[in-house]
Amino acid sequence: MSVKEPPVVLEEPAPERRRLADSQPATTVDRLKDNLYYLRGRGALEISGVYLAIVIGFVVTSLVNPAGFAFLNSNNLSGVLSQNIPVLAILAIGAGVLMIAGEFDLSIGATIGLCGVVFIRTANSAGWPVAFAATVAVGIAVAVINGLIVVSTKIPSFIATLGMSFFWTGVSIYVNGNTPATFFPGVRTDTMVNLMAGNYGYFRSQLVWLVVVGIAAWFLLHRHRAGNKVFAVGGNAAAAAAVSIKPKAVRLQAFAFLGVMVGIASSLYVARTSGMQPGTTESYTLLAIAAAVVGGCSLTGGRGSVTGMVVGGALILTIENGLVLGNAPGFYVQLFLGVAIVIAAVFNKFMEGKAT
Asked: Which spans are transmembrane here (predicted)?
């Protein structure tokens, strides 16, 4: 009688449980590669390469012909670039975050005018520290009012904020009149000037403000759950709502963030110019949106980076500066800006197609 052998039991190894932390880069090189891939996915790496190439071209031209193209002159670097680029870049950060959330604000220029008037009139009566706080508060209030109109009525933000831009311009004229708002003697103190428009040779203090604001915005948008919610709402609001994210609240927060950026930018603007004429800052609206688009922000929301927004603003004003130094006709700037927006929009659409 044969003895039956026991059946062979094949033991399968237990599946290895993976954690989210296991996919994180471990070395410095891996983290650098991860950041580069991250930037490339949002258009910032490509536009940074274009900007670097343009700057190198301008530097070489300036070295070859310093008299005819004074790009490296300290007056140009400090007096033009490091004063103008930070203001536009800060506005682009605000406009870009709102665009990532899927909304637009076409009242940025009008809000700058109103905030500038508030800063000057408050500084004349209570000093510049109180004026700075009041200016940021007014910027937030204006932006939140715009946001409430958009989210409560479901009117497209393009139309709602276009109408509100005329309203806020009217408010600034009502508050200040048709004459420019100016500081009283002694109000524009050395401390205020050094902090907001100080000249330090090859750069101005506005550049320091941009660095601080840019780093804070980068961590908020790319390393905080608040930024994740902004990307989620802009990418797919219905899917975001399905995971307990409140799209209306996130959009209002994005509007409020824009208000903070406008308040800071307008404070830096009037600290440098010493005055504000209501209705003269409308061009900043399209410049800020153009900088965000050129920097990789999607026109339909859900895509963008703080790095791209800053580089987009720097690219526009650097090329404008180069055209001025090269004695190009004034309409070349508008021509470049129009072409750049269209090309950036086409490129963003191409990148969105590759992502899907």
From this structure: 50-72, 84-101, 106-124, 130-151, 202-221, 254-271, 283-299, 331-351
